[in-house]
Amino acid sequence: MKKQTERTIYLVALISGVLSLYLNYTLLPVIMVFLGLAYLTLGWHLLNPEKERRFDFVYFWTSFSFAWAFLTLIFNFYEWSLLRWFQYASILFLVLAMILMSEIKRIKEKGIVEIFIKTMLLVALVVFSMIVD
Questions:
Q1: Confidence (pTM)
Q2: Contact at 8 Å (CB) between 69 and 100?
Q3: pLDDT of the chain along its 133 residues, tens only?
Q4: Which residues in 104-125 are b (16+ Cβ under 10 Å) and which e?
Q5: Residue 57: exposed, middle, or buried by beta-carbon count in 10 A (0-12, 13-18, 19+)?
Q6: Which of 1, 20, 80, 133 has the greatest count of CB atoms below 10 A from its CB?
Q7: CB–CB of 48/90 below 8 Å?
Q8: Angle at 8 between CA 82 and CA 1, to 5 degrees
């Protein structure tokens, strides 16, 4: 149930991010705001694949980076100032999250690999938003 919820949140946010690059619907940034807040509040709980509920900085940083990437896509939608800085910071945060995930001894665990791939997709989306801009 937890994995399905996280996958649904991620998929809806990713689709909203891609659509926001091409369509000018006001609902798309609103969806990304709520899903970014969901990653900020529930991200550690949703991304942590282990049964034990101890705090792990890697999952916190990854959920923060996801929320930052969605915020960057909102900045891109409205073409606000400081957009380039947010894009660079977003790429830096996501790459740092991938480095932190690669340092985990349990990298071959299915949940970690899935989060790693999701992070790479977000990096690609932010880079694509820089190219389209």
A1: 0.83
A2: no
A3: 667 877 888 888 888 888 888 888 888 888 888 888 888 877 666 666 565 555 677 778 888 898 899 989 888 888 888 889 999 999 999 999 888 888 775 555 656 778 888 889 999 999 998 888 7
A4: eeeeeeeebebbbebbeebbeb
A5: exposed
A6: 20
A7: no
A8: 135
